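Input (structure):
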């Protein structure tokens, strides 16, 4: 082998190895993004299941009390409901803690300190918004047997996506659903 052949072979090998390294790096980035997207969807589904299960056990004959109105909208960050008539069934509350990005459940409003987190975020998963709004029957009357819920999650920029300026970009997943109360 001559020196020229060795240099040409080395150049070709360097290009091929560089291409393989770039390909492996790109596959790794896409895999990280796919895992982040799957975690968003999975945790959104888990929280939705928890909320649906909790709300379906509530009584359709007891009124839903909305509070914590989002300014200028018909959306609320807190709802108070019950599984049945008081005093046998205490009033319960579901609310969004916007300071800590948690969705909380208070199973008995008359007892302090018994709140349970339905969802607490992580560095890679944040519940940015959760709100409730009433359903309407035909004719525009409020439907006390159903409740609308909206959730917005994001990956806190940890999937590694970038916008055109190079800044981290979050991936957002929104879920909106209606729950019918089953307990008469």
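Output (sequence):
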């Amino acid at each position: 082998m001559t020196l020229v052949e060795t240099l040409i072979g080395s150049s070709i090998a360097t290009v091929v190895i560089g291409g393989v390294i770039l390909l492996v790096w790109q596959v790794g980035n896409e895999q990280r993004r796919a895992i982040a997207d799957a975690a968003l969807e999975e945790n959104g589904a888990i929280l939705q299941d928890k909320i649906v299960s909790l709300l379906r056990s509530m009584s359709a004959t007891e009124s839903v009390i909305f509070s914590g109105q989002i300014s200028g909208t018909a959306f609320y960050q807190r709802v108070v409901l019950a599984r049945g008539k008081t005093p046998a069934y205490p009033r319960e509350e579901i609310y969004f803690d916007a300071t800590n990005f948690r969705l909380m459940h208070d199973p008995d409003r008359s007892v302090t300190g018994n709140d349970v987190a339905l969802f607490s975020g992580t560095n890679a998963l944040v519940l940015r918004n959760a709100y409730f709004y009433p359903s309407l029957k035909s004719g525009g009357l409020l439907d006390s047997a159903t409740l609308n819920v909206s959730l917005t999650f994001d990956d806190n920029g940890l999937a590694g996506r970038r916008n055109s300026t190079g800044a981290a970009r979050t991936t957002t997943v929104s879920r909106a659903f209606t729950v019918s109360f089953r307990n008469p």
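Notes: The first strand starts at residue 65 and ends at 69. The two ends are 89 Å apart (CA to CA).
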